[in-house]
């Protein structure tokens, strides 16, 4: 499998793992991806922080950047300077506050105008999707490569394609050709992985 894992941001979903998430994250870290977004949307802030505290040492050991999701205060308490927020949550915060708390701020967008807004609000990068059909968004038609190209053209910050990419070299290549800095992969990174 000829894949540049340095272009992949792994997105977690522990319900897709056959092994404990901490073990899966260690396997991911051995592949040296661009980073990991800990996205466990069904957890309370307290549960999420406890999980992040277990995952963080693994990522630090392998020097893989860990981005926490949705709970900025939990990230601050754990000393994590990377956060990913839905655009609506990012809008609730002041630019100065977010920049004082975090070195890297990501946001999820679904239109070029949203990407522009996220950049204005201080986002360091955006994830744009869903690009291809995906089980995560059953029944919703994918936005496609033209959508991705338009988002990439609308902002100067890095854009990561998300949705239905898996570990498909053709889909990764197509996203990169649209101007994406990389891709986000959930299901492909939560299952069986190639050896490093």
Describe this structure in words.
This protein is α/β, with parallel strands linked by helices and 196 residues long. The chain has one domain (5-190): TIM Barrel, CATH 3.20.20.70. 41% of the residues lie in helices and 18% in strands. It has helices at 21-30, 45-62, 72-78, 87-91, 95-101, 112-120, 144-154, 169-177, 187-190; strands at 8-11, 35-38, 66-69, 82-86, 104-109, 125-129, 159-162, 182-185. An eight-stranded parallel barrel has the order 1-2-3-4-5-6-7-8, surrounded by six helices. Helix 1 packs parallel to helix 2. The longest helix is centred in the N-terminal third of the chain and has 18 residues, at 45-62. The protein is globular, with a radius of gyration of 16 Å. The protein starts with 7 loop residues before the first strand and ends in a 6-residue tail after the last helix.
CATH architecture annotation: Alpha-Beta Barrel
Secondary-structure element order, as H and E? EHEHEHEHHEHEHEHEH
Average pLDDT score: 95
Q: What overall geometry do the principal axes of the alpha carbons give?
A: globular
Uncertain residue segments: none
Distance between the termini: 11 Å
Which range best describes the helical content: under 10%, 10-25%, 25-40%, 40-55%, 55-70% or over 70%?
40-55%
- Measured by DSSP, the beta-strand proportion falls in 15-25%
Tell me the name of the CATH class: Alpha Beta
Oligomer: single chain
Structural class: alpha/beta
Beta strands, count: 8
Kindly report the CATH topology: TIM Barrel
Spell out the CATH superfamily. Answer: Aldolase class I
Number of domains: 1
What strand order characterises the main sheet?
Answer: 1-2-3-4-5-6-7-8
Radius of gyration: 16 Å
Largest sheet: 8 strands, parallel, barrel
**H/I helix tally:** 9
């Amino acid at each position: 499998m000829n894949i540049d894992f340095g272009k992949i941001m792994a997105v977690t979903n522990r319900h897709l793992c056959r092994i404990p998430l901490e073990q899966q994250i260690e396997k991911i870290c051995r592949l040296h991806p661009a980073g990991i977004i800990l996205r466990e949307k069904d957890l309370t802030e307290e549960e999420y922080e406890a999980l992040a505290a277990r995952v963080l040492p693994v990522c630090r050991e392998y020097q893989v950047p860990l981005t926490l999701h949705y709970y900025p205060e939990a990230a601050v308490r754990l000393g994590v300077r990377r956060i990913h927020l839905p655009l609506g949550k990012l809008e609730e915060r002041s630019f100065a506050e977010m920049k004082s708390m975090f070195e890297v701020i990501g946001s999820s967008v679904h239109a070029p105008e949203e990407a522009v807004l996220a950049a204005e609000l201080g986002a360091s990068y955006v994830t744009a999707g869903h690009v291809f059909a995906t089980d995560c968004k059953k029944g919703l038609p994918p936005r496609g490569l033209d959508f991705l190209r338009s988002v990439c053209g609308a902002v100067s910050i890095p854009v990561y394609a998300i949705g239905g990419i898996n570990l498909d070299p053709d889909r990764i290549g197509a996203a990169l050709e649209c101007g994406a800095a990389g891709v986000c992969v959930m299901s492909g990174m939560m299952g069986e992985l190639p050896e490093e």
